[in-house]
């Protein structure tokens, strides 16, 4: 069911240094050689990038610029109905362009004075510890390509629309940015792979796919929902569970489908208390304790 699966196409570099993004045959851009060549070139930019340097500029085609315009406009209408107030205020504060795709460097320069965050280009999947750990240093790894223009409302992988309209707007909120950072510190602190996965699942079910009660309605704050044209209309019909660390940290999810179990925070304060409080001082031992208590029940 999920339209915007968090799936990354593998990126390979051959012995001649040629970079290839291995799109699945089902990918809307699979049979488009021009798109494929651009994806390879964009992946190369990310692989060659060194932290501390500006994010390299990407050229987008006129069709891709049109995808951004259409999706920005449609999502803006949906945000007004379905997004939490904290996100709407942050979006207003950031003021992303709606008529063209902003460069990651440009969004970094808009975000830094607000909350300190900036982007790092990612060619594809970033290992969990790097991805989350970098949040502690105010860095957000981001893809730079955009979905294929033949399917403006569908992408099988996270693209710049997800990274910027979903995460960028969220990172313009002081309160959400603080949560991203504390999750990053947690990822740095834990040592075992199990504990790291627990930390990342709590992130997944909150900052990627979280929903929140607001003025008697269910609203969304997760970047994955707020950047998905389809999912934003569906989340109210999903199974909604209370915000529970043990459940979030141990629930399996299928990254290729809509999230059919979502966790509801009762307010921003509640989210900060439960998820923020957990990330602030969790370690391998406390996570093992929470996991054991779930297995017993
Ligand atoms: Fe994401």
UniProtKB/TrEMBL annotation:
Q: Show the Gene3D superfamilies listed in the entry.
A: Aromatic amino acid hydroxylase
Q: Where is the Biopterin-dependent aromatic amino acid hydroxylase family profile domain?
A: 1-297
Transmembrane regions listed in the UniProt entry: none
- InterPro entries, per the entry: ArAA_hydroxylase, ArAA_hydroxylase_sf, Aro-AA_hydroxylase_C_sf, Aromatic-AA_hydroxylase_C
> CDD domains of this UniProt entry?
arom_aa_hydroxylase
Recite the UniProt keywords alphabetically: Iron, Metal-binding, Monooxygenase, Oxidoreductase
Annotated Fe cation binding lies at: 162, 167, 208
Biological process terms from the Gene Ontology for this record are:
aromatic amino acid metabolic process
Q: Does the keyword Metal-binding apply?
A: yes
Keyword Chloroplast attached: no
GO MF annotation: an example? oxidoreductase activity, acting on paired donors, with incorporation or reduction of molecular oxygen, reduced pteridine as one donor, and incorporation of one atom of oxygen
Q: Could you name the domain of life of the organism this protein comes from? A: Bacteria
For activity, the cofactor(s) needed are: Fe(2+)
- Give the family this protein belongs to, as stated in its UniProt record: Belongs to the biopterin-dependent aromatic amino acid hydroxylase family.
Q: What is this protein called?
A: Phenylalanine 4-hydroxylase
Q: What is the lineage of its organism?
A: Bacteria, Bacillati, Actinomycetota, Actinomycetes, Streptosporangiales
């Amino acid at each position: 069911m999920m339209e915007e699966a968090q799936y990354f196409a593998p990126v390979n570099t051959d012995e001649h240094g040629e970079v290839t993004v291995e799109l699945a045959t089902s990918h809307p851009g699979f049979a488009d050689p021009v798109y494929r060549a651009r994806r390879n070139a964009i992946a190369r930019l990310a692989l060659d990038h060194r932290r501390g340097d500006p994010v390299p500029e990407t050229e987008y085609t006129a069709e891709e610029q049109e995808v951004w315009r259409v999706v920005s406009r449609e999502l803006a209408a949906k945000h007004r109905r379905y997004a939490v107030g904290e996100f709407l205020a942050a979006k207003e504060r950031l003021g992303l362009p709606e008529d063209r795709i902003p460069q990651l460097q440009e969004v970094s320069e808009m975000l830094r004075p607000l909350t300190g965050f900036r982007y790092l280009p990612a060619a594809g999947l970033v290992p969990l510890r790097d991805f989350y750990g970098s949040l502690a240093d105010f860095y957000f790894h981001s893809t730079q390509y955009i979905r294929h223009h033949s399917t403006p409302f569908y992408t099988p992988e996270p693209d710049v629309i997800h990274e910027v309209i979903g995460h960028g707007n969220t990172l313009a909120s002081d309160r959400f940015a603080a949560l991203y950072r504390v999750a990053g510190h947690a990822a740095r602190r834990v040592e075992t792979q199990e504990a790291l996965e627990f930390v990342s699942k709590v992130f997944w079910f909150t900052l990627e796919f979280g929903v929140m009660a607001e003025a008697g309605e269910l609203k969304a704050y997760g970047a994955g929902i707020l950047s998905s044209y389809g999912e934003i209309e569906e989340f109210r019909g999903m199974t909604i569970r209370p915000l529970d660390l043990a459940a979030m940290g141990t629930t399996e999810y299928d990254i290729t489908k809509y999230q059919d179990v979502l966790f509801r925070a009762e307010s921003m304060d509640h989210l900060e208390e439960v998820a923020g409080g957990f990330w602030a001082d969790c370690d391998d031992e406390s996570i093992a304790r929470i996991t054991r208590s779930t297995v017993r029940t």
